[in-house]
């Protein structure tokens, strides 16, 4: 796809400056003048702008909430000529709304004392289309790496508590000396077509009317093409022939890489796996145009900023290679 790198989170604008991660003296020197992105329960702090757009909001390293967290700063890179770090402040207890884990999407806003009133923590999935490409990439990177630290605090080899290293891009075990690195889980998300129609489905527990492209995790020893065919036939019973690659999107929930593929369906009969999908349907290009235009009351378009929405909109515009 000629415009593949326009997908949200995929701009590649972040200068990660990986060559600096092992220089502890340099990293320590940069912290005092750096901007620090606080992340609360996976939500970055953002600033509401007058035009209703958003941008990331940062703290200085001397802010009170960061006082005891300096050893947990993660160096994201040099952004707009400024060293940029992220830190998890999930132990902070806000006043006001607390996210309900039963809700499909967190729409609450938390304000950190000592920051401007238009600053607060917001769920990335709800704001990703309002961020600039660089801001979106920074937010996704911060959420993914901090979540990795949160759930990988112990050595998978011996069980000892591991410690942060390489400016946050590695964890080391002080007992068995095993080194651990951030993981990325590959997921195929498939634009499956048959003639003028595309296959979409809705997961169990999704909001009413929400449909998207089929997706599933790749398995060990499996190619992208094989995973595409397997996931589609497992979930819907539809056999797929030719498969190709379109685009990819880092998806920090918690650490996936969404690999967008296309596939040509060999069959059209649908046999649902009820453990995976609540429904799956074929939609013509004309029907999907109505969905994107808001003229269909039963089906809503994929979330703006998601790779599913990106692939479907470019399929409608006939801009797929």
Contiguous low-pLDDT stretches (5 residues minimum) are: none
Largest sheet: 7 strands, mixed
User: What percent of residues are in strands?
Assistant: 25-35%
Structure class:
alpha+beta
Radius of gyration: 21 Å
Mean pLDDT: 95
Percent helix among the residues?
Answer: 10-25%
User: Roughly how many Å apart are the termini?
Assistant: 5 Å
Report the count of strand segments: 16
Number of helices: 6
Give helix and strand order, one letter per element, not per position: HEEEEEEEHHEEEEEEHEEEHH
- What is the general shape? globular
What would you say this structure looks like, in words?
The structure is a single chain. The protein is of the alpha+beta class and 321 residues long. 19% of the residues lie in helices and 29% in strands. Strand 9 (170-172) and strand 10 (179-180) form a beta hairpin. The N and C termini lie close together (5 Å). The mean pLDDT is 95.
Short description:
The chain is α+β, with helices and mostly antiparallel strands and 321 residues long. It contains 6 helices and 16 strands.
Secondary structure: elements and pairs:
Layout: H1 24-31, E1 35-40, E2 43-48, E3 54-56, E4 59-60, E5 74-79, E6 82-88, E7 119-121, H2 124-127, H3 133-151, E8 163-165, E9 170-172, E10 179-180, E11 185-194, E12 197-203, E13 214-217, H4 224-236, E14 240-251, E15 256-265, E16 277-284, H5 285-292, H6 307-316
Parallel strand pairs: 1-6, 11-15
Antiparallel strand pairs: 1-2, 1-4, 2-3, 2-7, 5-6, 8-9, 9-10, 11-12, 11-13, 12-16, 14-15
């Amino acid at each position: 796809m000629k415009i593949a790198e326009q997908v949200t989170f995929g701009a590649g604008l972040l200068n990660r400056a990986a060559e600096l991660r092992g220089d502890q003296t340099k990293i320590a020197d940069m912290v005092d003048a750096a901007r620090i992105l606080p992340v609360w329960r996976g939500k970055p702090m953002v600033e509401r702008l007058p035009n209703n757009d958003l941008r990331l909001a940062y703290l200085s390293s001397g802010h009170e909430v960061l006082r005891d967290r300096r050893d947990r700063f993660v160096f994201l890179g040099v952004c707009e000529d400024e060293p940029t770090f992220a830190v998890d402040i999930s132990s902070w207890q806000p006043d006001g709304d607390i996210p309900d884990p039963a809700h499909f999407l967190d729409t609450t806003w938390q304000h950190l004392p000592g920051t401007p009133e238009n600053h607060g923590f917001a769920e990335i999935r709800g704001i990703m289309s309002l961020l600039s490409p660089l801001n979106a990439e920074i937010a996704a990177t911060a959420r993914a790496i901090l979540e990795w630290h949160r759930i990988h605090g112990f050595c998978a080899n011996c069980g000892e508590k591991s410690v942060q290293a390489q400016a946050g891009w590695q964890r080391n075990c002080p007992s068995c000396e095993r080194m651990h690195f951030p993981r990325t889980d590959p997921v195929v998300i498939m634009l499956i077509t048959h003639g003028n129609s595309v296959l979409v489905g809705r997961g169990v527990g999704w909001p009413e009317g929400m449909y998207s492209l089929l997706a599933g995790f790749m398995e060990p020893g499996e190619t992208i093409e094989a995973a595409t065919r397997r996931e589609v036939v497992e979930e819907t019973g539809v056999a797929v022939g030719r498969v190709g690659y379109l685009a990819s999107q880092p998806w920090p929930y918690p650490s996936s890489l969404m690999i967008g593929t296309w596939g040509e369906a060999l069959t059209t009969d649908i046999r649902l796996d009820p453990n995976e999908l609540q429904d799956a349907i074929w939609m013509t290009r004309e029907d999907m145009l109505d969905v994107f235009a808001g003229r269909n009351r039963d089906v809503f378009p994929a979330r703006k900023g998601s790779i599913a929405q990106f692939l479907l909109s470019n399929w409608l515009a006939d801009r797929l290679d």
